[in-house]
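hey
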């Protein structure tokens, strides 16, 4: 790798010597033209700002529509007697910590 870097440096030095280093120093290097430099930055910024606002409005409308529809309510499953078999009472009483059978829903 170091050898290839040295060869590249020698090539560029020999090129400068052949063209004449003094005449090359007086000429300003040409400006590089990139493909993105032809776009108008203000136009692109305004375009993406409009797209962003349109997306915000669309998402807000869809969220309001989805939240206003409501959700389905299902019937309670039948009370099967084998689901709550307790052979021994809990130390805190007959109900488990997460069930409150006496509260009105």
């Amino acid at each position: 790798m170091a050898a290839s870097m040295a060869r590249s440096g020698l090539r560029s030095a020999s090129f400068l010597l052949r063209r004449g280093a003094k005449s090359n120093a007086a000429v300003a290097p040409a400006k590089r033209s990139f493909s993105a430099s032809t776009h108008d930055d203000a136009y692109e910024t305004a375009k993406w700002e409009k797209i962003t606002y349109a997306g915000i409005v669309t998402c807000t409308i869809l969220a309001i529509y989805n939240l206003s529809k409501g959700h389905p309510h299902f019937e309670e499953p039948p009370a099967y007697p084998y689901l709550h078999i307790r052979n021994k009472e809990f130390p805190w009483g007959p109900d488990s910590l997460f069930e409150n059978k006496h509260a009105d829903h």
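The chain is about 50% helix and 0% strand. The CA atoms of residues 66 and 72 lie 13 Å apart.
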